[in-house]
Structure formats: C-alpha cells, structure tokens
TrEMBL record:
Organism, as annotated: Bracon brevicornis
Substrates-to-products reaction catalysed: GDP-alpha-D-glucose + phosphate = alpha-D-glucose 1-phosphate + GDP + H(+)
Function: Specific and highly efficient GDP-D-glucose phosphorylase regulating the levels of GDP-D-glucose in cells.
Family: Belongs to the GDPGP1 family.
PANTHER family xrefs: GDP-D-GLUCOSE PHOSPHORYLASE 1 (PTHR20884)
Protein name: GDP-D-glucose phosphorylase 1
C-alpha cells in the first residue's frame, strides 16, 4: 500500500487553552499540533450555548482553513428551514457541495479493501490537518472536510496511516465518543456512513460538525430491547440506539457495544449509518445530560448516486437533510423524506434485533 509522507515543522510553543490542563503543543519534533486531554476533560452534561477549549480550537482551525482557501468553496448555506410535520426535519440547500465536492468513490461491496492508488487521507495536504489527538505523528488527526456541509465540518481520521477501509474499529468508536464529550456544545454531531451506505471514501473516517438546530432524535421516545439496548420505532427509519446514561457514563463499555453492533452488521453484509448527538432526559429543560448513538441498518446502495433531491445518508437519517436542488428544496415535504428513509431502511431492524439483543446481553454479563 502506498502512503504519502507528511512533513511539517512547527515552532516551539506550549500554552494552556483554558483553566484546565488541556494543552495545545507545537514542537519542532512533531509533525502537527497536539491537543492533549484525559478523562477529566470529558463533559457529561452541557447546555445549548456551552463551549469548551476543544470547541474553540476546532472553530479557530476551521476559520483559518476557510481564510486560507483550503475548502473547495466558501460555505454559503443561506437557506434552511424546518420541514412541517411531527419529525422536525431540518432541510438545508447546499448547491456548492452538490456541484463542487470531490466525486465520491465507486463503492462496490461491503468488504471492499483499502486501495492506496485511489484517493485516501494519506494524500491530503498538511494544511488540511487541524491538529493531532495522539502523539503528533499524524496517525490520529482532526482534518478539514474540504466540501463542508455545515459550520465547523471536519473529519476525525483515526489510525490514518494504517490505511484501513471504511469500517469502524473499536478504537475509533471510543475516540469519537471522547471527542463528542470534550465538547460543551449541544450542537456538535458525529456521523458515519458505512460502505454501501453512501460512504464517499474507502478510508476510515468520521464526520464532526455543528448544527444549531434541535433534532427530533435528541428527545425521541425509545423502546427498551434489553437493559442497555434501545430501538427507535416512532420514526421513519427504525434503528438501534445506545444511551450513555445506561452505562453510568462508562465511555469504554458504551463504545464497545456500539462497535459490536456495527461489527455484527458489517460481518453480515448489512450497511449502516451512524449518528451521535447530545440528548435530553427531560425535553423541556435546558440541560443536555445524555449522549446517544443511533445505528440504522439499511439496504445496500451501490455505485455513485446522483439524485436531484437528497441522498439518504447519515445526516438525513439524523433529521438533517442536505438538499441539492433549489426546486426540490422549495417543494420538499415530510412525506418526501419519510418515503426515502423508509425505502432505504427496508425493515432491517426487526431482521437483526434478536441477534443484537443477545449481543448486548452478553456484554452486560
């Protein structure tokens, strides 16, 4: 497998970014700035307008990338609206992303191996990398999404230099959970598209972005399938849900079960979309005191898709619909979105539920 080398030297600098022990370090012997954190920096509760050192650093680096023309276009999502209906879908028109993003890779199967000759994240420029959350060698980094869907849209590239295909590892699920908890913003979201579920690059990556909108899934009623596994049924796309509160805020156990679920789907050839968001146990209060991981099994989508309206991928499953056509945006209805999500879901929840209840009970015991 071919890898491109990253070479960047920074000035020696050590600074505290807030009143805690979070640190950002640039040193001459490291390739990228390092954001240091430990479990003491995880925020298990937050409010709508919260902001942490992690949030500030992402926003700072994202704005710098925008000013330095790292993105393929200036983010200009001027139109956004709540789609009338009970599910509070949020539609945005993003014509620049539709026309100017890199052409998605032609994904041919769930077991498609990494191919170093195709575009992958070892080939991105150093200026696209915001910072490192590991040892500074560039293996675990936060990088720009050069075709942003929303403000702050970036990528978490775990184990980047190991050249892994777009299949979540246990390590990546632990780390993306920690990154969500480093934030104090209720608006930060993390998402993942599997192979054959609209993944655009076959190289392991997660999306992070800020969406200042309250989604239905933040407070949706859930059906308890086991003591730690839930399902969302009152939704056009039935799926699995894990609540961090059910694990008594044990991040590792929470992430491990999420990994076991996606690993089950992966090994059984079932594509999936993942959406991670802050959540509220009491919808009418300002406090966000939980974290939810939603995992939606779905039928396979092969090849490169080009639709006039929207693609049912991770954001759309979460309730954030990125529309690629002005006329469709003006005419979109809840029925349009519901129909597309139901058709893609193909009733796969019930076909996998019993096995995944067994998986969750094994972990619990």
């Amino acid at each position: 497998m071919r890898q491109s080398k990253v070479v960047q030297r920074g000035r020696v600098c050590l600074q505290s970014v807030d009143g805690t022990n979070n640190r950002i370090m640039n040193t001459a012997d490291k390739k990228f700035p390092i954001f240091y954190f430990n479990e003491k920096h995880l925020n298990f509760t937050t409010t709508i307008d919260g902001e942490s050192a992690f949030d500030r650093f992402i926003i700072q680096k994202w704005k710098e990338a925008e000013e330095n023309n790292v993105f393929r276009y200036k983010l200009n999502v001027v139109n956004g609206k709540r789609v009338e209906g009970r599910y509070k879908f949020f539609a945005q028109m993003n014509l620049d992303r539709a026309h100017n993003r890199r052409r998605p890779e032609n994904i041919e199967s769930m077991s498609m191996p990494f191919d170093g000759d195709r575009f992958n994240f070892t080939k991105i420029s150093n200026e696209e990398i915001f910072f490192d959350i590991g040892n500074g060698d560039g293996n675990n980094v936060i990088a720009a999404n050069v075709s942003p869907i929303e403000f702050g849209h970036c990528l978490f590239l775990p184990q980047r230099l190991e050249c892994l295909p777009q299949i979540p590892t246990e390590f990546s699920l632990v780390k993306i959970t920690e990154l969500m908890l480093l934030s104090k913003s209720s608006y930060l979201r993390a998402t993942f598209n599997s192979l054959c579920a609209h993944a655009s690059v076959n190289h392991l990556h997660w999306h992070l972005y800020y969406l200042k909108y309250n989604l239905f899934i933040e407070t949706a009623d859930l059906e308890q399938a086991s003591s730690i596994l839930y399902v969302i049924r009152d939704y056009p796309a039935p799926g699995f849900c894990l609540k961090l509160s059910s694990f008594h805020n044990d991040v590792k156990s929470f992430a491990v079960l999420a990994f076991k679920i996606v690993n089950y789907l992966q090994t059984h050839g079932i594509p999936y979309n993942v959406y991670i968001t802050r959540a509220q146990s009491s919808p009418n209060e300002a406090l966000y005191d939980d974290l939810r991981i939603y995992i939606w099994p779905r039928k396979k989508s092969f090849g490169i898709k080009d639709t006039r309206g929207f693609v049912p991928a991770c954001c759309e499953y979460g309730g954030h619909v990125s529309v690629r056509n002005e006329q469709f945006y003006e005419e979109i209805t809840e029925a349009d979105i519901t129909s597309e999500l139901k058709e893609a879901g193909d009733n796969l929840l019930d076909k996998t539920l019993k096995d995944l209840i067994d998986v969750s009970e094994l972990l619990e015991n």
